[in-house]
Amino acid sequence: MNYCVIGTAGHIDHGKTSLVKALTGIDTDRLPEEKKRGLTIDLGFAHMDLEAEGGKIRAAIIDVPGHERFIRNMLAGTTSIDFVLFVVAADDGIMPQTREHLDIVRLLGIKKGIFAITKSDLATVERIAEVRAEVEALLKDTILEGSPIIPVSAVTGKGVEGLKGLIGRNIGRVERGSLKGFFRLPIDRSFTVKGFGTVVTGTVASGSVIKGAEVICFPSGEKVKVRGMQSLYADVEEAFAGQRAALNIAGVNHKDIKRGFMLASPELLELSGSKGLSMDCSFEFVKGISIKSGQLLKVHHLTDESLATIRLSGGGEAGEKTCGRLKMKKPLLALRGDRFILRDPALNSTIGGGVVELPYFSKELMSRLDLTLVRNYGLDGLLRIILDQRAGIGAWHLCLMLNIKREGLEGVLKDSGFYLSGGYVLNLKKTDEIKGMAIAVIKGFHSSRPLEAGIKEDELLKALRGGLSACAGDRIGIFREIIAGLTSSGHLKREGSVLRLSSYTPEAKGGDTKIEEAIKDLFSKGFTPPLPEEVKSLPFSKKDIERVFLFLQRGGFIVKLKEGSFISSEALKLAKERLTAHIKEKGGIKAAEFRDILGCGRKLAIEILEYFDKEKITLRAGDVRALR
User: Fold this and answer.
1) Phi, psi for 347 (deg, rounded to 5)
2) Residue 230 in contact with residue 236, Cβ under 8 Å?
3) Which residues contact 221 (CB under 8 A, 6 or more apart)?
């Protein structure tokens, strides 16, 4: 069984609710005030089974209010429909809300629909023909031009069965959002059911969810569990994009959830904060409307809404298609491809709509994009807009921007010149440039400071900051991925936080050679190493002595026993050999015995023994040491 969602549209009192009842037997006016006034105030819900060319279709019907005062409620229902059942009363004909509802339907990209001329029992054949002509003229040059038009009467039933069959024949195969996308269920109702707890309803906007899954509640970010699900009153194990669903959830009270909230994949948790405040979009404005950058508008997205400031990249003249940026007053969980409606809060009228082209999660990234390039690009084009001028971006950020899951990212990147490395998507051309810069910086470092083992990682990062400046908040991570590539390829060697060229060996040059020879001469006396004061008294600058001394220590010629006590590695090697031979013969050694073996002072003998203890060569038990 296939599913679809049909939405009503049309002016107040043109018979939308009566027609739905005639089609389904369900009265969608559920509120006492609606029954009392005979006026639809909020969304109503019904369903019916249709015979379609591809088999049976179970259609959910969302009945929307027609009064301009309840346009917010109307929009909450219309943004999720596949097919519109548009009503125009035979007596009134085209009215103001007819036009506004048609603008909304058109701007939301709803491509299929049927126009029912209601109250046909109250009109002559000539009047019905006149209204038909008005509807055809209204639809001219719109996506719904050529849609079927049928006269019906909810009172007499005339044309109702014909309308039902016509819907089945015209609804065709419904285009679905990706079932592999991120799950989102915009909530249009929240209530409690005795014995079950909190239940929310809505039309799944993208992805799918299974019974038992853990999801988040947007905007709070609170985690909830899906205890059970129904679709059109039938229990289901999974709800998917385009399907009406009622979810029984645990972990939140129904009073804390309202229309405009959303259940979503846990992966979207980070968008519950300020990252959902800005997005680049393509816009279309209603004919006769003039828009200026900086204007405050109301954005209606799925069942939610937010005030936003619009920034246009073009002139934004009436009826013009252009693109630009929306800066929201509160976060909207909008992803690439989502449609929305723009209304002027001052005029209380629909002035346009648009499509989310790129939602942004980085101020640095936002400031570098040319809005005029965003519109109508495929994934390949968007990848180039985002990455052509930068070394890389976090893979997860890119997934959110492009509205694709991580597992689908590799396919998108294939043959693109961009590649996955760790948690990042890197630009091969740019990273090769930065690798070249890194090698040049390190080579220069070796040349100017030949005694040092290499450059510190943070110092190299600082030197490469210009090339990495376009990496936004991912700069450090991308830098580390580039360096990891250089080390794995054998170009660089890493020792802790120090990096050097693989081919480089530190050595003393020029005047440093004399300092090196002088220090080595002091340490050539075996078990009578020099005191720190003797090293410092050499006839060279203190700074140069310290630098060469550190070089000899790093190179392994000098070994630090403890603070202020050093010995040559050769002397230490000889001490270890004598120690090992004695212990193997005698079974252990005391400090005095070790002193006598080395022919040194007691202080140095103890310092060497303690060094061997620390290096886990010996193990002390009282006054005696044994080999570990």
Assistant:
1) -95, -10
2) yes
3) 269, 272, 273
3-state SS, residue 203: strand
DSSP secondary structure code for residue 124 in this structure: -
Q: Which domains does the chain have, with CATH numbers?
A: 2-171 (3.40.50.300), 184-271 (2.40.30.10), 273-376 (2.40.30.10), 377-506 (1.10.10.10), 542-627 (1.10.10.10)
User: Strand 83-89 relative to strand 112-118: parallel, antiparallel, unpaired?
Assistant: parallel
Long-range contact pairs involving 385-389 (C-beta distance under 8 Å, separation at least 24): 385/358, 386/358, 387/418, 387/425, 387/427, 388/427, 389/430, 389/470
User: Residue 112 has which token pair?
Assistant: 């299929």
* Phi, psi dihedral angles at 149 (to 5 degrees): -125, 130
Alpha carbons 477 and 262: distance in angstroms, whole number: 32
Q: What is the pLDDT of residues 587-620, one digit of tens each?
A: 899 999 999 999 999 999 999 999 998 989 988 8
Give backbone dihedrals phi and psi of 511, rounded to 5 degrees, phi first. Answer: -65, -20
pLDDT value for 130: 96
- The reported pLDDT for the residue numbered 499 is 93
At 257, give phi and psi (nearest 5°). -120, 135
- At 426, list the tokens: 């890197």
User: In whole angstroms, what is the distance from residue 80 CA to residue 4 CA?
Assistant: 10
Q: How many CA atoms lie within 13 A of 454 on its CB side?
A: 22
Q: DSSP assignment of 301-319, as one string?
A: ETTEEEEEEEEESS---TT
Q: Do the Cβ atoms of 402 and 382 come closer than 8 Å?
A: yes
Element counts in the chain: helices (H) and strands (E): 20, 31
The helix or strand, by DSSP H or E, that contains position 346, with its residue range, turns out to be none
Dist. CA 451–CA 447, nearest whole Å: 9
For residue 44 the two structure tokens come to 């109503």
Q: What is the DSSP string of 83-120?
A: EEEEEEETTT-S-HHHHHHHHHHHHTT--EEEEEEE-G
Find, among 455, 494, 469, the residue nearest to 362 by Cα.
Answer: 469
Residues of the chain with pLDDT under 50: 318
Determine contact, residues 271/400, Cβ cutoff 8 Å: yes
What lies within 8 Å, CB to CB, of 163 at 6+ separation is 19, 23, 114, 116, 150, 152
Provide the strand spans (E) within 296-440: 296-301, 304-312, 321-328, 339-344, 349-359, 392-394, 418-421, 424-427
On the question of a cis peptide bond just before residue 219, with omega within 30 degrees of 0, the verdict is yes
Alpha helices in 123-212 (DSSP H): 125-139, 160-171
Take residue 116 and report the two structure tokens written for it: 């029912």
